């Protein structure tokens, strides 16, 4: 028979056979590059070249500077702010979205996917145009008589914040979407029957019921925002650069691969510990 | 009712926020003169023609499309066997490979990009066209992996058991029952990977940034070395491609379900 008894060695091998190609591809082109990056972070830089395999901790020692500390605090703060904004608007939005008939949900979901898949280059270009003096929103305000002269709102902190929130918002909605659409509708109905207004029901029944999902989403969107590598550069001044921008800059323009790799390892550790935190929270949430 | 009105107002505000930058870019793209002004001066679709007549932009578009087609194909080829093996039986090895498949997409993109740069620069091949195809495929494997796994969940075990009872072997079951049933999910996964590869910048830049020009790389270079309205028209083209592709996925599949809603009988 083709179906070998589960657990027998021959059957086991046969069943694992399809995994050989994917495993090899992922090992060769994800695990090896990842390991190599960690190795490079411990190697010495060769000026004008790439790296030489001489062990050093100098790349990590550079973290202990005020400059790096400032970048780190700014990156984490900015990502937290972006994630919070996305959640504050995204949670009620996703809730109302899942209340719509499916036919009406689809165009919104298509729009969210389309914006989410947009290149960071295109988002950066669009927002820098939208906030510019020559082609921006301020021209519209001038023609409406709200302002006297068009003004440039980029580069600046609020331009970075707007661009990054724009990029992360569809992500937040799509991460929240499954939890909200699987929420038992009788929950809100019960609250309504007991006399709560829709707004009150949302805050006192819906949000607490999804507390764990909301915390998890905050962290996931936070990590996503931490990954923005172009928007702070295109919409901000150098003091608005984040860790991801700095890594790109070091790798490409300063050709200091080892230092870029060390910062990347640091970014991975930060992101991974946050993701692990999410899964632990998720498990606790299910147990509760 | 005041509640409905407030809901509509809220949706309108979110819609306006999402649309604003795209509207401005669309306005800029129809400028008659070679300037980025908004509201546009005059009306011309010449900048859309430029995408296909200008050698640089046409080349970038061709490069991007070819890379995206190759990357999406390889991503599906990696994802399909993982989902298939896990559907037949969940094993520790299967889970481990699945985790590897999802990881690159969860980590910040700079990490994948830097890993790819370290790898190709060390192994040779840095700057060659296939490096970005392979690295994109690995980066986006998680998308077909998620959609195809969902597809397998929709297959009723009783159907395959019935086929087996009637004497069908694994291969027959795979080609006559399983593949036709998950085909829409394979296509959706391919579509997601294709659109994301088309738009991806940092991995492409760190692998072939100095030898090839994809559309995002060309737009970025134009941002630094001189604006042209073609940047705007090609951006709008990319928005349109994404809307059309995801629109098709929604038309032929159940998008809410694909994105994690329970399938419910409220008639979509």
TrEMBL record, chain A:
Is Lipoprotein among this UniProt entry's keywords?
A: no
**UniProt xrefs under Pfam families:** BPD_transp_1 (PF00528)
PROSITE patterns assigned: ABC_TM1
Gene3D superfamilies membership = MetI-like
Keywords, ordered alphabetically: Cell membrane, Membrane, Transmembrane, Transmembrane helix, Transport
Q: Which GO terms describe its biological process?
A: transmembrane transport
InterPro entries under this entry? Answer: MetI-like, MetI-like_sf
Domain of life where this protein originates: Bacteria
Q: Where does this protein reside within or beyond the cell? A: Cell membrane
Membrane topology according to the record: Multi-pass membrane protein
Entry GO terms, CC? plasma membrane
Domain annotation ABC transmembrane type-1: ranges: 72-278
Q: Which residues cross the membrane?
A: 19-43, 63-96, 108-132, 152-180, 201-231, 251-277
- Family assignment? Belongs to the binding-protein-dependent transport system permease family. CysTW subfamily.
Q: What is this protein called?
A: ABC-type spermidine/putrescine transport system
């Amino acid at each position: 028979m083709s179906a070998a008894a589960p657990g027998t060695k021959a059957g086991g091998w046969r069943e694992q056979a399809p995994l050989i190609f994917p495993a090899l591809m992922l090992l060769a082109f994800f695990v090896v590059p990842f390991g190599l990056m960690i190795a490079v972070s411990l190697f010495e830089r060769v000026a004008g070249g790439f790296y030489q395999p001489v062990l050093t901790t100098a790349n990590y020692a550079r973290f202990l500077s005020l400059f790096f500390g400032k970048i780190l605090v700014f990156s984490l703060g900015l990502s937290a702010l972006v994630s919070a904004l996305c959640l504050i608007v995204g949670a009620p939005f996703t809730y109302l979205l899942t209340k719509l008939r499916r036919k009406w949900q689809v165009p919104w979901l298509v729009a969210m996917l389309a914006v989410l898949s947009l290149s960071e280059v295109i988002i950066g270009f669009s927002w820098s145009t939208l906030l510019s003096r020559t082609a921006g929103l301020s021209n519209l305000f001038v023609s409406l008589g709200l302002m006297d002269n068009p003004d440039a709102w980029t580069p600046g902190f609020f331009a970075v914040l707007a661009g990054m929130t724009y990029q992360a918002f569809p992500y937040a909605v799509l991460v929240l979407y499954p939890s909200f659409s699987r929420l038992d509708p009788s929950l809100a109905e019960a609250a309504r029957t007991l006399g709560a207004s829709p707004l009150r029901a949302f805050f006192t029944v819906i949000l607490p019921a999804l507390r764990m999902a909301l915390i998890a989403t905050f962290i996931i969107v936070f990590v996503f925002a931490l990954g923005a590598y172009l928007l702070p550069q295109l919409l901000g001044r150098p003091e608005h650069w984040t860790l991801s921008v700095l890594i790109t800059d070091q790798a490409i323009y300063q050709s200091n691969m080892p230092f870029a790799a060390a910062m990347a390892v640091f970014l991975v550790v930060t992101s991974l510990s946050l993701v692990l935190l999410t899964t632990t929270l998720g498990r606790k949430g299910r147990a509760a | 009712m005041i509640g409905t009105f407030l809901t509509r107002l809220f949706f309108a505000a979110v819609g306006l926020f999402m649309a604003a930058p795209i509207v401005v870019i669309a306005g800029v793209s129809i400028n008659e003169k070679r300037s980025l002004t908004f509201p546009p001066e005059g009306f011309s679709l010449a900048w859309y023609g430029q995408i296909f007549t200008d050698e640089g932009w046409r080349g970038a578009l061709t490069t991007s499309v070819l890379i995206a087609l190759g990357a999406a194909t390889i991503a599906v080829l990696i994802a399909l066997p993982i989902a298939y093996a896990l559907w037949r039986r969940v094993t520790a090895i299967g889970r481990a490979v699945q985790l590897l498949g999802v990881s690159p997409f969860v980590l910040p993109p700079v990490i994948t990009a830097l890993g790819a740069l370290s790898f190709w620069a060390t192994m040779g091949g840095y700057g060659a066209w296939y490096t970005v195809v392979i690295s994109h495929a690995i980066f986006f494997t998680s998308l077909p992996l998620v959609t195809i796994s969902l597809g397998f969940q929709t297959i009723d075990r009783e159907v395959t058991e019935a086929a087996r009872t009637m004497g069908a072997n694994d291969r027959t079951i795979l080609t006559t029952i399983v593949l036709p049933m998950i085909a829409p999910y394979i296509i959706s996964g391919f579509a997601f990977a294709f659109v994301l590869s088309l738009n991806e910048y940092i991995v492409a830049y760190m692998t072939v940034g100095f030898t090839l020009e994809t559309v995002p790389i060309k737009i970025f270079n134009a941002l630094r070395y001189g604006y042209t309205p073609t940047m705007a028209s090609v951006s709008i083209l990319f928005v349109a491609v994404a809307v059309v592709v995801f629109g098709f996925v929604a038309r032929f599949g159940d998008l809410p379900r694909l994105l994690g809603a329970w399938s419910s009988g409220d008639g979509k």
